Amino acid sequence: MALLGFMDTKDLEEFATALATDLGRRFPPASEARTDKGAEQQIKVIMAGLGARAVRYRDQHKLGIYKKAKLANVFKWKLSDLGYSEGFVEKATKEIATRLAVK
Question: What pTM does this model have?
Fold first, then answer.
């Protein structure tokens, strides 16, 4: 029975998708073209908030290595689907994965 809980990732996938969707709403892919300091600060603040939400989720759901990786991958795939550039997707995903990995 414990194995079934380990493999059930529906809630986790919904959370990761919600994180990416929130990023897409607050900093749309078209905003990537902005090079001003305001855009840099905006994405920094948004990513800090998303990272904090991911850490809270990790702590509440006791995520192991597999589920942390799954969360990061679903987040990455959703950002790609939303139309972000490969570089932006990699950077944002790395930030979320790093936050999940660090205690």
Answer: 0.90
